[in-house]
């Protein structure tokens, strides 16, 4: 009779159920107790006001960074024209920045997913690596899927990676948008009326943006950019729309 057929003695604890494989993308917090990011997040949980201050600074930095790279292609030193109230607005005007942030977080999570699976399922990962080479490649240690080479805690390294991705991607996005405007493939065509002038300025400009004190224009014909004080502008009108035009009433159908 096989010993495995003997029933378990009375009162013996039942064997633990098999552990379900955890496929989560979220990295473990264990081992990151001294991470700067984890400590900062816990501090913000205790002091919510610090969270809003940090978010304000980050959004302001993003707005400054993107504004610099966008107007740099037009030869405008944008930092000389912005005021403190313009910093926060510059970072939230374009929803593409939010998409870039989400894309950066997703890419970092996907790249480090094998390391997360190995840490969340150590016993199962060890068995899978012994089965075939594919599992060894997926769940094995690698400089491409681990943050050990950075000598930083995983959460800190992931935050740095997302920040660098945001900086590079946002700069590339606004630079390409500026190139499209200069090549006449994009941009809002406008006519500009200055205070004291009877007619609008000759030609059509491309509206680059505004601040609390200036309107930034690009004149394709002259290939030049211009910062016009808002106090000198009477009206900026979209091209192709005649002021005071009466819309044609819809035709009535006969009954």
From TrEMBL:
This is Uncharacterized protein. Keywords: Membrane, Transmembrane, Transmembrane helix. The chain crosses the membrane at residues 49-71, 96-113, 156-175. It comes from the Bacteria.
